[in-house]
Every structure is written in C-alpha cells, then in structure tokens.
Specification:
This protein folds into two domains: 31 residues; 141 residues, Lipopolysaccharide (LPS) transport protein A like domain (lipopolysaccharide transport protein A fold), CATH 2.60.450. Strand 7 and strand 8 form a beta hairpin. About 5% of the residues have low confidence. It is built from two helices and nine strands; from the N terminus they run H-H-E-E-E-E-E-E-E-E-E. It has a nine-stranded antiparallel beta sheet, with no helix packed on it. The longest helix has 30 residues. It is elongated. By secondary structure, it is an alpha+beta fold.
Length: 191
C-alpha cells in the first residue's frame, strides 16, 4: 500500500488531468461543434460584404439629372466573387429620344465587372406613352449598362395596347427605342 502523501499526490494529478481534459473538450466543442455559435455567424457575415434594405441607387447623367434610378428591397454584395444580388427591384432608365423605360424583376445580379445587370423572375419592361407604351415580359433579361441594350434568348411577349407579339429572343436598344424579336415570332393585331 502507498503512503498517504503518494495517494494524495496521485489523486491530485488525476483530478487535474480530468479537469484539463474536460476544459479542452468544452473548448473544442465550442469552436467546432456548437451549431449557430458566434464563430460561424461572424464567418458568414465576412462572406457577405455589404447588405442594404429598401435602397435607392441613382446614377446622374451629364446634365446633372437622374439617368438611372434603381429601387431594391435588398442589395447584398457577395465577397467570394464581388457580385451584387438585388431582390424585388425596379429600374428607371431615362433616355433623351425615347423617354423613360421602367424595368421590374424579382431578382437581379450584377457581375463583378459592373458592366451588366442580369434580371430574372417575372421581368417586365415598360416604355413611355409617347412611344406607344410597349410592355415586354420575359423570365430572364440582361441589361448592358454601358450600351443601354437589353436582351434575352428566352421566350418573350411584347404588347402595344391591344396588339401582341410573341417570340423567342429579344434585343432592345433603349436609347433608340428600337426592338427586335429574334425567332419564332407570332403576332395578334386587333382592329
């Protein structure tokens, strides 16, 4: 049998070893195993970049008046690729010769180069009354911010009052007010 001093020393080492092991396991669980802890939340926020709710962005023209106005329910920067996601958006584009065009969509994505805006989900483009109030509907649309050209390869419908054209693929030069359906064009013109 061991003397009492050796037993007490062995017991103290055992207690310290068990306590250190428990503290180490708790620390590891807190860092890697606890769902929804602060460590994971801060990492997710670092991935997002900026996030704005109910935002309006305005680009001014050379004459100092608004040229492009974008309203969005949310705007979120993605740090991984520097793209920007928009939800429930409306875009007003003012041209000199063909008035103001309004584009609405459920979602939008601006790639990192900021040269275009990719719209999806119930996309609707409306022209001014002065140009016949054309209404274009499609599911996806690309808007080139430099050339002010919108286009899609998807099915589209174009309505001018009582008249309607349907086709696949579309190209509109907003500044000129010109519209071209690409293929499978069918129309209905009511007197």
């Amino acid at each position: 049998m061991r003397p009492a001093a050796q037993r007490k020393s062995a017991l103290n080492r055992f207690v310290v070893t068990v306590a250190a092991s428990a503290a180490g396991l708790a620390l590891l669980y807190g860092l890697f195993g606890a769902p929804g802890d602060d460590f994971e939340t801060s990492r997710a926020e670092e991935q997002r970049g900026y996030y704005v709710l109910d935002a309006t962005l305005t680009e001014m023209g050379a004459d100092g008046t608004p040229r492009v106005v974008v309203h969005a329910k949310s705007i979120e920067q993605q740090l991984a690729d520097q793209s920007v996601l928009l939800s429930d958006l409306s875009l007003d584009y003012k041209t000199e010769s063909s008035g103001t065009w309004t584009v609405t969509a459920n979602q939008g994505r601006m790639p990192p180069d900021r040269g275009s805006l990719l719209l999806s989900g119930d996309v609707k483009v409306t022209g001014t009354e002065a140009r016949g109030s054309a209404v274009i509907r499609t599911d996806r649309l690309a808007y080139n911010t430099a050339s002010s050209v919108i286009q899609t390869a998807d099915p589209v419908s174009v309505t001018f009052g009582e008249h309607e054209l349907r086709g696949r693929g579309l190209r509109v030069v907003l500044n000129d007010g010109t519209l071209r359906l690409e293929s499978n064009v069918h129309g209905r013109f009511n007197p």
